[in-house]
Amino acid sequence: MTEAIFAVDLGATWLRSALVDPARRLAMKAVAATPDRAADACAIIDAAWRRAGCPRAVALASAPELTADAMVRRWPNRRAYEGGSLLSTTIRDAAVVAMVDDAAAAAIAAHPFERRDAGPTICISIGSGIGGGAVIDGVPLTGANGAAMDLGHMPVPSATGLRCSCGRVGCLQAAASGFALRDLVAASPDALLQSPDVASALQRASAALGEAIVIVNAVFDPARIAIAGGLGLSPLFDQIEAELIARHITVSIARHRCGDDAGLVGAAIGFGLNRTAPGRVGHDNQERVVSHAD
After folding, report:
1. pLDDT tens for residues 91-136?
2. In sequence order, what are the residues at sequence separation of 6 or more whose Cβ sits closer than 8 angstroms to the Cβ of residue 147?
3. Please, what is the end-to-end C-alpha distance for the chain in angstroms?
4. 24 and 111 belong to one structural domain
5. Is the dihedral of CA 179, 181, 185, 187 positive or negative?
6. In the predicted model, is pLDDT for residue 280 greater than 50?
7. Total structural domains within the chain
8. Could you tell me if 182 and 152 lie in one domain?
């Protein structure tokens, strides 16, 4: 990066934005509850971009699957967004835009690109939904259709019988996401971890996440596994660690080094990766690193 990048991180719960400078310092950071409609999210992003001085470089990390012009193609956790655009015509016409899946952005932020011998980085983002990202040999893993590391929809034994928002049964997200836990214990988002009914649901969630981590570890033999997302950074992290220890599984996990800013930092770094090896899709000003939906 040689210029400040306007970064956006859209998840099912929070919409964050900031200017990220070449040293990965954040300025003009803004956080808002994710609105119910894509049009409202678009307006919030546009207003923040204007306050930041209309930067030409825009990096968008998003939970939903997007088209090349930043329209929401699929978002099982927020169906009302589907068909709506996240970026105003002004931004799309004036800026160079790079788009990346939010969990993939978190994986990019967790990877030590300065090290040649860094080894694979895996990130599991646990929030309202669950996503995954990987950086292998310094390159974000995308897959043939941009859907690599869609961990939230990976079947795990502890989610057996639970229906996911995608329509399938047994997905990791059906047992261990914020939406799933709220459904299981009927608690509000703010009261979720304090609910007296949450213990058994959290036990099931940590078991499901432990199963997913074991699979990912066996497939990738990663040098590091970072845990991100609101739930991932919460006390649930300690329960996941305890679950791995109880199962005598020697897998090391760590809270993401960028905390809640992982998506913003990763989106900005991803923009720089696109400038080095661009993969243009659709609109002349827009590029995609990787995208899949939670």
Report:
1. 999 999 999 999 999 999 999 999 989 999 999 999 989 999 999 9
2. 292
3. 29
4. no
5. negative
6. no
7. 2
8. yes
Same domain, 13 and 151: no
Tokens 């678009």, located at residue: 42
User: 255 and 117, same structural domain?
Assistant: yes
- Which residues form the domain of 15? 5-105+260-290
What is the domain-level CATH number for residue 124?
3.30.420.40
- pLDDT averaged over the chain? 88
Q: Per residue in 9-31, pLDDT tens?
A: 999 999 999 999 999 999 999 99
Contacts for 70 with CB less than 8 Å, ≥ 6 apart: 60, 85, 86, 87, 92, 97, 99, 286
Are 136 and 74 in a shared domain? no
Q: Could you identify the residue written with the tokens 């983002």?
A: 125
Task: Dihedral sign for Cα 286, 131, 73, 89, please.
Answer: negative
pLDDT tens digit sequence for 134-186? 999 999 998 887 778 999 999 999 999 999 988 999 999 999 998 888 766 55
